[in-house]
Design goal:
Blueprint: H1 2-19, E1 24-25, E2 27-30, H2 32-35, E3 43-46, E4 52-56, E5 59-63, E6 68-71, E7 79-85, E8 88-93, E9 96-103, E10 106-111, E11 129-133, E12 136-140, E13 144-148, E14 153-157, E15 162-168, E16 171-176, E17 181-185, E18 188-191, E19 203-209, E20 212-217, E21 222-226, E22 229-232, H3 236-244, E23 246-251, E24 256-261, E25 266-270, E26 275-279, E27 290-295, E28 301-305, E29 308-312, E30 319-322, E31 331-337, E32 340-345, E33 348-353, E34 356-359, E35 367-373, E36 376-381, E37 384-389, E38 392-397, E39 404-407, E40 414-418, E41 421-427, E42 430-436, E43 444-451, E44 454-459, E45 464-469, E46 475-480, H4 481-484, E47 494-498, E48 501-506, E49 509-514, E50 519-522, H5 524-529, E51 533-538, E52 543-548, E53 551-558, E54 561-567, E55 583-586, E56 589-594, E57 597-601, E58 614-619, E59 622-624, E60 628-630, E61 636-641, E62 652-656, E63 663-664, E64 669-672, E65 678-687, E66 692-702, H6 710-807, H7 812-825, H8 829-842, H9 844-853, H10 859-869, H11 874-881, H12 885-898, H13 907-912
Parallel strand pairs: 60-66
Antiparallel strand pairs: 1-30, 2-29, 3-4, 4-5, 5-6, 7-8, 8-9, 9-10, 11-12, 12-13, 13-14, 15-16, 16-17, 17-18, 19-20, 20-21, 21-22, 23-24, 24-25, 25-26, 27-28, 28-29, 30-57, 31-32, 32-33, 33-34, 35-36, 36-37, 37-38, 39-40, 40-41, 41-42, 43-44, 44-45, 45-46, 47-48, 48-49, 49-50, 51-52, 52-53, ...
């Protein structure tokens, strides 16, 4: 008696636990209106084409992640079982079994049992299970087994009623309803030794897991065979399962067990920590009666329900928490504290721990934000600011409506945006010491600081404010920056901190503040990379989350590159709270608030599988090939099939006719209408977060509309020809007058043309004269350069000879003769005049500019400037000026002073650039 009471108490305890809210895997429910089929789904399998197949009463239902298809058997009987083998999908029904194959975008059926005399007339056999063993296909009813080798069918009639057959260790086990389990070897049935305890039980599954064999009975729970010893499964969950009635069970690769029941949904048991979760109608499942279980290549579950189909992402890093009772309300912020969760909702502050959701006492009302500071949690509430520390909840102050709590990026102070302005907490270790910044008594939604004595505040409705204060936190100036920057639409300003820089998102445009111009300026980096953003939430220095066109993206900033990770819309569709996007990061785990709970995901654990993309294109429900021709103004439906249904589903985009922008492919479907006639090209791209890679393309041709057909064009031409003929006849009498007018116009045009030619000739003559003058100028320039060098060389020769003669004192007569020769070779006055005139003509513009800028320069100074501009050395300039080398250097020194040049500035370069 005592033992029964303990079991009853434990059962009640477990039942309470499983009815509490839990963090559950994401579930997609499909009712019969989704796939337009029947209620019960008896069998589930994934085909080699990656599509999911369902035995849905009268229909074979196919789902490729884009569209649902349904097919019926020729005899319209109920399909009880399916099994995939290669490109064939075998199905079993009432006195019928065969296989389906795909052709031209449709499923075709071939009967294997028809006209073979497989079923007797007095038999009412239904094929409830199909499996393959040793290259043979087995079709099993409750009384017989039909073995198909690809050509012939062998029938084995069983001596008793069975539930199902199972393959364990390459042996075929037959589960009798009354006599236990047998091994079928040929036509012989041998009972399994040691399994007598499971006689008189309906067995729905036998699975081998880690060298143990698990037998799942309908009403007696689970039995385990460990090395030949059969015992009841020693786990408290087994007592629950006895009352839940097991229908189906299956082990997963990650050491988990899935058990489908007749009335309590599924149980997910984790052997790693001996924990379990119950997914049923009380939380996320559409129906509690599980008829079948299937796995896809992502190892996620597909459940055939008594009413509908469900997809459960058991291997996904995404989990969902929501309260369907309505007690929790809309969650505005959530944080993870060890093994519990703290949530701020419009109903108060809630704690979820040990599978229990509870309202923290005295926290009723609108709670906006939870911020972590060290090991404490600040909660912005409608009634004030609260503190949660070491499991204790206390009120910090009575300042109403703490929307956001932000740490200063330059110190240890914190800023809080409230209903009535900005509150400053000078030191997080002394929270009693706070200051309310005066001068801005408005409802402030966001606040940030990255510069001392300056705070940015965004009004809840419109406007961005810059608050300046002194070291005593006394407000000195409050400036409406959006108004000053003449930004008209400044509603809903968002402040975003990125790597110690503050950005402002205003009407989907990114701005930063220019402290020099005191204006907001467009931020090129963010406006280029992040367009059409409606909300943003920072995570840490290199991570943030964006809401773009209703879709959420996690952004990882790697240097100057941004890596995008899309968060599939199905996880949060219709559940995001507008203007209140908050995310909390705990190691690699992210928590995102929703209007009925929150979502937990680990982006680094989403391992992308190899993409095996298939594109099916339908025109008027007919599958078409690449480079096909379609009618004008007809609809084109392109199914982009990845074969992935869970968290690894790729982020696909497409471009049409080489356009610049990438368009997102939603739900794998592209619908094109109103296409122009001519050739078109569709390109499919996969986005890996950093770049787009082309993975498929499709070409097609749109025919011309009927009114542009050959016969219609011929009709148009005939009509136009008739009109033109009438028009010609009607205008014939005016033709001669037009000819005369035309001749007059031609004469006038000829005169104009002659005048234009003459003007052009005169212009060409002027250009020619200009060219001749330029050539003459170049010639003079050459003469000047040549004469300059000649004069320089003569000067050098004369100087040298004079030096020699001066040293030879004994030869007076010789000296006299040589000096006479020197005078003969000396430059005469006329040559100097020609040289200087040419020099002035060449450098006329330079001399004019130099004289205007420096009027104190002498003619000798200007000559020196010209020679320096000609890049002559001091040695070459000396004879030209008829002075010594030392004299040239002294003249250069005086010239630098007149030109006001500093010591490091080169004189020649200065003159060249003048």
């Amino acid at each position: 008696m005592k033992s029964n009471l303990l079991k009853l108490f434990f059962l009640l305890f477990i039942t309470f636990q499983i009815q509490a809210q839990e963090l559950l895997p994401f579930v997609e429910n499909y009712n019969k209106s989704s796939y337009e089929g029947d209620n019960q789904t008896w069998s589930v399998a994934q085909g080699n084409d990656n599509a999911m197949y369902f035995a849905n009463n009268h229909y074979l239902v196919r789902y490729n992640g884009v569209v649902w298809e349904k097919y019926t058997l020729p005899n319209k009987t109920i399909i009880r079982s399916i099994m995939v083998d290669g490109d064939k999908v075998y199905s079993g029904s009432y006195k019928e079994f065969g296989y389906w194959y795909r052709q031209d975008g449709k499923m075709k059926y071939v009967s294997v049992s028809k006209n073979r005399g497989v079923f007797d007339e007095n038999e009412n056999e239904e094929v409830w299970k199909i499996f393959k063993l040793n290259d043979l296909i087995y079709f099993q009813s409750f009384n017989q087994i039909f073995i198909y080798d690809g050509k012939s069918i062998q029938k084995t009639k069983l001596p008793f009623l069975i539930s199902y057959c199972f393959i364990v260790d390459n042996q075929l086990l037959v589960a009798s309803v009354e006599h236990g389990v047998f091994v079928l070897n040929g036509n012989k049935l041998n009972p399994v030794k040691g399994w007598g305890a499971i006689k008189n039980n309906v067995i729905h599954a036998i699975e081998k897991h880690r060298n143990k064999t698990y037998i799942f009975t309908h009403k007696k729970g689970i039995f385990v065979d460990d090395r030949g010893i059969l015992t009841a499964w020693n786990n408290p969950l087994n007592e629950v399962l006895k009352n839940a009635n097991i229908n189906v069970a299956r082990f997963l690769k990650n050491n988990k067990l899935i058990i489908g029941t007749a009335g309590e949904g599924i149980y997910m048991f984790d052997f790693n920590d001996n924990s379990f979760k119950n997914i049923n109608r009380k939380n996320v499942l559409m129906n509690n009666s599980i008829l079948s279980i299937g796995l896809d290549k992502e190892d996620d579950l597909w459940l055939g329900l008594d009413n509908g189909i469900a997809h459960i992402e058991v291997t996904s890093p995404v989990s969902i928490f929501y309260d369907n009772s309505g007690v929790l309300g809309s969650v505005y912020s959530v944080v993870n504290i060890d093994k519990e969760y703290l949530m701020a909702s419009n109903h108060g502050v809630f704690k979820y721990a040990d599978k229990k959701l509870s309202l923290i006492p005295n926290s009723q009302g609108q709670a906006w934000n939870i911020s972590k500071v060290d090991n404490r949690y600040f909660i912005g509430h409608n009634e004030g600011t609260f503190l949660y520390e070491n499991g204790k909840f206390s009120k910090l102050n009575t300042i109403n409506g703490g929307w956001n709590f932000t740490k200063s990026s330059i110190g240890n102070s914190y800023f809080q945006a409230t209903y009535s302005g900005v509150v400053v907490y000078k030191d997080s270790n002394n929270l009693e010491e706070k200051v309310v910044l005066k001068g801005l008594m408005k409802p402030i939604k966001y606040v940030a600081q990255n510069k001392k004595n300056e705070v940015w505040a965004a009004d809840n409705y419109r406007g961005l404010y810059r608050i300046l204060y002194n070291n005593n936190y006394e407000t000195e100036k409050v400036e409406n920056v959006t108004q000053h920057s003449k930004i008209g639409n400044d509603f809903g300003v968002k402040i975003f901190e990125f790597r110690n820089e503050i950005l402002f998102l205003i009407n989907k445009t990114w701005y930063t503040y220019n402290s020099i111009t005191n204006q907001l300026e467009n931020n090129e980096l963010f406006n280029y990379n992040f367009k059409n953003i409606s909300d943003v939430a920072a995570i840490d220095e290199n991570h943030f989350i964006l809401l773009q066109d209703g879709l959420l993206y996690h952004i990882y900033a790697n240097g100057n590159k941004f890596i995008w990770n899309s968060i599939q819309e199905k996880y949060y569709k219709g559940k995001i709270i507008n203007e209140n996007l908050n995310i909390f990061k705990d190691k690699n785990n992210y928590l995102l608030n929703l209007d009925d709970g929150f979502i937990s995901f680990k982006l680094k654990e989403i391992n992308k599988l190899k993409l095996d993309l298939k594109v099916e294109v339908f025109n008027d429900e007919n599958l078409i090939e690449n480079n096909s021709r379609i009618n004008y103004n007809s609809e084109l439906r392109i199914n982009v099939i990845s074969g992935l249904f869970g968290a690894t589903k790729p982020n696909l985009f497409y471009k049409i006719n080489d356009e610049n922008n990438f368009r997102s492919i939603k739900d794998g479907l592209i619908v094109l209408n109103n296409l122009n006639s001519g050739s078109h090209n569709i390109e499919i791209y996969n986005h890996d977060g950093l770049s787009y890679s082309k993975i498929s393309s499709f070409n097609f041709f749109v025919a011309k509309p009927w009114y542009f057909s050959f016969w219609m064009l011929l009709l148009y031409l005939s009509f136009i020809a008739g009109v033109l003929y009438v028009y010609y006849r009607w205008n014939k009498m005016r033709y001669l007058q037009k000819l005369e007018l035309r001749e007059e116009e031609l004469r006038h045009q000829k005169e104009i043309l002659e005048m234009e030619l003459k003007a052009e000739h005169d212009l060409n003559s002027q250009e020619y004269q200009k060219h001749i003058l330029e050539l003459e100028l170049q010639t003079k320039s050459s003469e000047v350069a040549g004469k300059s060098l000649s004069i320089a060389k003569q000067g050098e020769m004369i100087e040298k000879i004079q030096s020699i003669l001066d040293s030879e004192t004994d030869f007076n007569k010789l000296k006299s003769e040589i000096k006479k020769a020197i005078k003969i070779n000396a430059v005469n006055k006329h040559e100097w005049e020609i040289f200087e005139n040419n020099l002035n003509q060449i450098h006329n513009e330079f001399v004019t500019n130099l004289s205007q800028k420096y009027p104190n320069l002498t003619s000798k100074d200007i000559k020196l400037c010209i020679y320096l501009k000609m890049n002559l050395s001091s040695k070459e300039i000396a004879p030209l000026l008829n002075i010594s080398f030392r004299g040239v250097e002294l003249h250069r020194y005086r010239l630098r002073k007149k030109l006001n040049l500093v010591q490091d500035e080169n004189l020649s370069n200065f003159l060249l650039n003048l």
